[in-house]
Amino acid sequence: MFKKMQIIILGALGVLVTAIVIGLLIHGDKNNNDISISAEGGSNIFEEVSNLEALELGVIDGETLRKDNGLEGSVAEEGGETATSNVSVSISLRSIQDDIKIKLSNSSTEKLIANVPFTVSVKGKDKTLTYTDTDMDGIIYIPFVEAGDYTVFLSNITCKDVNYSADKSQTITVSDSIEYAKVDILDEIKTEAQINVEEEDTKVQDVDETTPMDEIGDYEETPVEESYDEDISEEAEDLLAQIEEDVAAEEASRAAARGASSGTITTPVNPAPAPSVPGYAEAHSGTKVIDVSKHNGAIDWGAVKNSGISHAIIRCGYRGSSSGALVIDPLYAVNMAAAQGAGVNVGVYFFSQAVNEVEAVEEASMVLELIKGYSLQMPVYLDVEKSRGRGDAISVEQRTAVCYAFLNTIRNAGYTAGIYSNKLWFEGMINTAAFLDYKIWLAQYVDIPTYTATRYDMWQYTCKGSVPGIAGNVDMNVIK
Question: Binning pLDDT at 50, 70 and 90, where does residue 121 land?
């Protein structure tokens, strides 16, 4: 019995061993078939490990691995690899006086390349210096450069998976004398969407800065309290009645202006009667002119023309008070086209914040760029006045040189040039006598101007004028 049990157990073990051996053989054949299939497909797991190790060791590069596997081009991989592309950089140079401005543009789009920390080498006669575009705006400016020839080279750089390189260097001659001529400035003109407007457009407009307080007299408007003590004298009552009458007249005038701006009034609005001041009528006689900017909002130029205003000075732009950026007035093109379309004679003005002659030539160059294609019947004016910005800090001598550089550049381009400022600045902040060959536009908000330092050709007598087609106040001027 015992022997019989042994025979049965040994038989079962034999069957089990046989089954295991057969299973192993079948599994081995399957693995061999899988490897063979994988090899026929182009690579197997051992080859993949080998490639990865080679990539790790630097024997092959990622681009080679992509090409070997049929992945041509710059396609991002699932593993986080990013594509690379190549950009050809164009180097352009300009110099006005003892300086070099380097502009780095995309050769295909011709636009400045921003957000890349470019480095250039500038080779002169005796030495080579390197400069970096620290603010990454595509422009590197180098002041205080000695006269001579300089060659600029761009260092190749890869930034955000883009390879930037220049095909060739550029050479420029720097002079220590200034030529008052237009330079290429188009790609440096910014819109207000590209700047902080509150920091850059800071011309002082809320306070009368045109006249010393002891000369203003009764011109300043005094706010009237709506509530008052009922126990007042007859003289006070008469005064209040007169004030109310004046306010009603003003409201009627504004209503007429609103009607004109909507096209319902086409006849000129009668001006307010002149104050009984000796010489007032003579001082205010002449062609009436308005000057406008974005601050005047949308203008109905047809209504302006129908009201009797036939001349306007339109702001084309300004230099930023903080950064010094060159900024176009957002309503400049609209105002120019609409004013000329309505038959209004136009000129332009630019609000300066230049601190040296080089910047003044840049400002004039911007104006010359913006007035291309327009026919001007009035001068191009430089607006120089208080801003609480960079332009306030320079000396009288520097400011005079700035004005001269701007005006000369405009004149050399064939336009009539002029300078605008107020009595205080013309008398104390500018050597106005140096500009008698140019048009002088005086601002002084009084009944009769007291400015006598030089002649003036146009007088801005108020910033609180009212003209049909313009909502709110507008600057009023008279050509002498």
Answer: very high
- Pair 355, 390: CB distance under 8 Å: yes
Q: Provide the CATH number for the domain around residue 365.
A: 3.20.20.80
Same domain, 128 and 59: no
C-alpha closest to that of 204 among 424, 399, 363, 478: 424
Best CA proximity match to 383, nearest among 440, 344, 331, 334: 440
Rounded CA-CA distance 221/164 in Å is 61
How many alpha carbons lie under 13 Å from residue 298 in its C-beta half-sphere?
A: 4
Kindly tell me the burial class for residue 65, based on how many C-beta atoms sit within 10 Å of its own C-beta (0-12, 13-18, 19 or more).
middle
Predicted pLDDT of residue 218: 44
Is the model more confident about 139 or about 242? 139
Same domain, 418 and 387: yes
| Domain annotation covers residue 345 | yes
Q: Are residues 70 and 161 in the same domain?
A: no
Question: What does the pLDDT look like over 403-434, one tens digit per residue?
Answer: 999 999 999 999 999 999 999 999 999 999 99
User: Do 382 and 446 belong together in one domain?
Assistant: yes
For residues 254-278, average pLDDT: 51
Segment 280-307 shows an average pLDDT of 97
The answer on pLDDT for 247 being more than 90 is no
Token pair for 12:
């079962």
Q: How many Cβ atoms are within 10 Å of 423's Cβ, its own excluded?
A: 23
Alpha carbons within 13 A on the beta-carbon side of 27:
6
Burial level of 453, CB count in 10 A (0-12/13-18/19+)? middle
CA angle centred on 278, ends 274 and 282, rounded to 5° = 65
Tell me, yes or no, whether 113 and 223 share the same domain: no
Q: How many folded domains does the chain comprise?
A: 3
308's CB contacts (< 8 A; 6+ apart) are 268, 269, 288
Model-level pTM? 0.73
| 59 falls within a domain | yes
Residue 440: give the domain boundaries.
213-479
- Whether residue 283 is found in the same domain as residue 406: yes
CA distance 149 to 311: 48
Same domain for 46 and 93, yes or no, is no
Q: Which pLDDT value is given to residue 277?
A: 84
- Taking CA 399 as the corner, what is the angle to CA 394 and CA 401, rounded to the nearest 5 degrees? 130
Residue 315 has pLDDT above 60, yes or no: yes
187-201, 253-267, 275-289, 460-474: segment of lowest average pLDDT: 253-267
Q: Are 246 and 110 contained in the same domain?
A: no
| Alpha carbons 304 and 268: distance in angstroms, whole number | 9
